[in-house]
Here is the input.
Amino acid sequence: MAVISTNQDKLVSHQVLTKFMREVFGRIKCAPEVSEPVVQGVVDTALRGVDTHAIRLLPRYIKEGQSGRVNLSPQMRITQTLPTTALLDADHTYGMHAASFGMDHAIRMAEQYGMGSVAIYNSSHFGAAGIYALAAANRGFMGFSFTHGHPIVAPSGGSKALIGTNPIAFAVPMEGEDPFCLDMATSGVPWNKVLQYRAENAPLKPGWAVDREGKPTTDPHLACALLPIGDYKGYGLAMMVDILSALLTGMAFGPGVSGLYSPGEHQNIGHFVMAINISAFTPPAEFASRMKEMAEGLRSSPRANNDVPILVANDPQKATRAERLREGIPIPPPVVDDLKNLAMELGIDSNDYPSLLGT
Amino acid sequence: MAVISTNQDKLVSHQVLTKFMREVFGRIKCAPEVSEPVVQGVVDTALRGVDTHAIRLLPRYIKEGQSGRVNLSPQMRITQTLPTTALLDADHTYGMHAASFGMDHAIRMAEQYGMGSVAIYNSSHFGAAGIYALAAANRGFMGFSFTHGHPIVAPSGGSKALIGTNPIAFAVPMEGEDPFCLDMATSGVPWNKVLQYRAENAPLKPGWAVDREGKPTTDPHLACALLPIGDYKGYGLAMMVDILSALLTGMAFGPGVSGLYSPGEHQNIGHFVMAINISAFTPPAEFASRMKEMAEGLRSSPRANNDVPILVANDPQKATRAERLREGIPIPPPVVDDLKNLAMELGIDSNDYPSLLGT
Here is the structure.
């Protein structure tokens, strides 16, 4: 266990976390059909090591449900506009509920017609974009998912944060292992990274952020906005994500998108999910086998540094997942404290979860 | 005219270039249905200022037609596999012919079913990816186009060029002006840029290239492979493009893709084009108006440098297009020489094109 936890983290099995989260959502009277995609999404994301989008957000999600910002009894309505396009009014449910439902529907359309896409509106933070692309790939489809977010990235040449870190996720099946899955923000780093460097008084890397005048800065205390990857390229991709998530859905875009942590009523964000039927183009087994061949060719190619392996997208997450399935999911002390408070507040008996809530 | 040409470039109207190209293709007995998309694609690309992918490639395209590398009498076959998916065997025609035909078909499917995609195989260099995304946007659709290319980009952590600069293009209509169009290589710069810096003995910018050991280098003479934008992000996007262009089409991927300039038989590359019916999600006029609003919000936002405007994707190309429609397309002397040789070889009377071929 020392391999993944040399510090004070608790190591909690995914089964215990799942059971705990189910009890938490039960206590706030969230219907299982609403909460189950959140539980699965958070636990899967934690297993894959994407900790910024996993357990630490649970208290926030619960608070949003309690305050009414997220609707715990949503009446989602899907409107089929053409055979492969649908609009999903998420009625302010949890984003993971909305996007899972949306991707299921996109897959059904792709099954029959070759492609399918769902533009989702009146939604909220949907966690890691990769969840939905992976859901498609795990069922043999090519999956894409996109969401916009609150503005924290400056346009190229600008000084004001006007765009979200707007992620793009893409996944396809691969023979003999979990899918290939690219899940990337269109900014160089997340804002959390700047906050972490600020706390440590460490210099940022060049190209990560600009100051209030829009000048590149490596001073974490002066950083006011993130920069997109590859200048106009990441900026253009971020706009593409906003176009898909806001312009197709009728949601606000750019500066109009409210923050994950902002108070007020509903979050009102949009997502776009899409599935493509691989079997409409090529035999799926051949596709998966050639995908494996492509990945292996890259992994085994000459390295710049012999000690640093060449990976393909999702390799680090696959390794972490295998390890965490075996050893447990590390939860840092501040998050454990938050979960203890949450349990106490909701009247959950900490003795039922000794590995998570025990002293 | 001094504004766009302070050097020895000839300024040639797009009408003259169009007429010249039509005569050139006529001389090599290329059917107009095959050559016309090439003529239109090259002239439009030249007008938009993407000179790396425009007139300078004409002699190469002609040689490919003459040598049989490109088939001047192709029998393209399209197979409708599901209502929104089709496979196009391009029979080694010009890539611009294949991809234009493919996008037309994708749009027809999107019109009826909401989405449409065509995986194109047995094709060749298709010029600027933006051409096809723009074709969709100009007809009111959301367009995507992708193509792989010969390997010149190293994977993150690798020393060997194993992936193409694999571009992504995305375009949508915008009220009152030409479409928003992102057309980006997934590498930081094209290989041409390295060659140009090599010729000028100028240092490369950090992050553009690696040497033969995979170490980052700014020495243009030591550069052996390009780097993707944003490390694993651009690398993952480049793989996505290879997956769409090669794995869905049965074409070779990565190191198996032959070069634009390689000798030998057919080029055997694949493309993927996709259209989405905007009206299936939102009234098109409202979409275009909100797109304009998004662009204007960014353009008018606070600048890092007052003298440098904030742009959105396609703004530079729109400005160049307006200028070149008015003033002509600048053709540098070496390209003029190539065109003169081409004209002589094909028995074209240079007196018919004084602005282009005159002394």
About this structure: Residues 1-6 of chain B have pLDDT under 50 and may be disordered. The longest helix of chain B spans residues 95-113.
